[in-house]
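FYI - complex with xylulose-1,5-bisphosphate, inputs then prediction.
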Amino acid sequence: MLPKALLFDVDGTMADTERDGHRVAFNRAFAEAGLDWVWDVPLYGELLSVTGGKERMRHYVERYRPDYVRPDDFDVLVVRLHAAKTRHYTALVAGDGIPLRPGVRRLLDEARRAGVRIAIATTTTPDNVSALLRHSLARDSETWFDVIGAGDVVQAKKPAPDIYYYVLDRLGLPAADCVAFEDSENGLRSSTAAGIETVVTINDYTRSHDFTGAALVLDHLGDPGQPCKVISGHLAAGATAVDLTTLRSLFD
Ligand code: XBP
Ligand code: MG
């Protein structure tokens, strides 16, 4: 049976947005606010254990900056920094652009042609999703997605399953009819806790994560001339990319 909907995580899954997108935007917001907070590439990898930009900043101060004296309005500062970071991130995506990962566009196109619904389940801010879709996929691509579940629409971010429950509820579909695409352990924990079969495409920040419970783990989804490599799970003999036939086999 074909899945009825494909549910995509955004950061790290649709595009490698973390190292050269979100991280850079956080640093720009910190510098602009006169803070001496600098998130280099390895530190950012550690900080990714906490999802959500506001939550990540709080975690950084608690864990890494015992020297930092919080102002009375620290909560307001976090919200202001986050708004500035969103402004920098969306400008970056609109300017330099961040390419989609291999196979993402191909699989989305195939799903749309076949009448398989597509949706987004992400921790990031809705403005960031809109910017990436508009600039990296297609101008009108937000309208391709039946549901875009993003950011603070749920209280508990990944690894909690809430964002996937939110998306399933709005799609009106049971978990058993869907496949999720994730790149991280937190993402996989979120989707599998919601009962959704999950395909993981790793990246530099997540390759050492524990992906126990994933239906399939790959380096990427694969494209013509760019075959994917299977890390765990099974792809049909001779297959070099994840397509709807591959996904159908997850349900057989
Ligand atoms: C994505 C995140 C987000 C982004 C930043 O996780 O953790 O926090 O890094 O987004 P996932 P905001 O891919 O598992 O959804 O700063 O907009 O919160
Ligand atoms: Mg992700």
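The first helix runs from residue 18 to 32. The mean pLDDT is 97.
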